[in-house]
Amino acid sequence: MATQGQVITCRAAVAWEANKPLVIEEVQVAPPQAGEVRVKILFTALCHTDAYTWSGKDPEGLFPCILGHEAAGIVESVGEGVTEVQPGDHVIPCYQAECRECKFCKSGKTNLCGKVRAATGVGVMMNDRKSRFSINGKPIYHFMGTSTFSQYTVVHDVSVAKIDPKAPLEKVCLLGCGVPTGLGAVWNTAKVEAGSIVAIFGLGTVGLAVAEGAKAASASRIIGIDIDSNKFDRAKDFGVTEFVNPKDHDKPIQQVLVDLTDGGVDYSFECIGNVSVMRAALECCHKGWGTSVIVGVAASGQEISTRPFQLVTGRVWKGTAFGGFKSRSQVPMLVDKYMKKEIKVDEYITHNLTLPEMNKAFDLLHEGSCLRCVLDMQV
Ligand SMILES: NC(=O)c1ccc[n+]([C@@H]2O[C@H](COP(=O)([O-])OP(=O)(O)OC[C@H]3O[C@@H](n4cnc5c(N)ncnc54)[C@H](O)[C@@H]3O)[C@@H](O)[C@H]2O)c1
Ligand SMILES: N[C@@H](CCC(=O)N[C@@H](CSCO)C(=O)NCC(=O)O)C(=O)O
Ligand SMILES: [Zn+2]
Ligand SMILES: [Zn+2]
Question: What is the first-listed, main subcellular location in coarse terms (predicted)?
Answer without folding.
Answer: cytoplasm
